[in-house]
Amino acid sequence: MKVLRYPIFGITCCFVSGIVVDFYTKPDTTILFIALAISFVLFCVCYGYSNRHFIQQNYFGLSVYLLSFLSGSFAHQLHYAPNKHGHYSHYLLNDGHYPIRGVITERLKTSASFEKYLFRVSEINHQKANGTLLLYAPKTIVLPKPVIGSEILLYDAVAAVPKNRNPFQFNYADYMAKRNVFHQMYLNRDNFIVIGHSNTITSRIAAYRDRLLEGFEKHHFKPETQHIINALVLGQRQDMDPQTVSAYANAGATHILAISGLHIALLYGILLFLTKPLKRIKNGKTLQLLIPIVLLWFYALLTGFSASVVRSVTMLSFLSFGLFLNRSANSFQGILVSLLLLVAIKPNFIFDIGFQLSYMAVFAIISLQTIFQKIRLPKNPILRYVIGIVWVSFAAQVGVLPLCLYYFHQIPLLFIASNLVVLPMTTLILTLGILLTILNFIPGNLILFLGKALSFLIETMNAYIGWIASFRSLTLRNLSFNTELLFVLYIVMIALFLWFRKRTPIRLMGLLSTLILLQMTYWFTLYMIRNKEELVVFHQQQHTLITIKTNNHIKVYSNDSCITKNRNLQSYRSGLFYPEIQQHPLRNTLFYNDQKILIVDGDGIYDTIQKPDIVVLINHPKINLDRLIGLVQPKLILADGTNYKRETARWEVSCRKTKIPFYATGKKGFFSIASIN
Question: Which fold has domain 88-199?
Answer without folding.
Answer: OB fold (Dihydrolipoamide Acetyltransferase, E2P) (2.40.50)
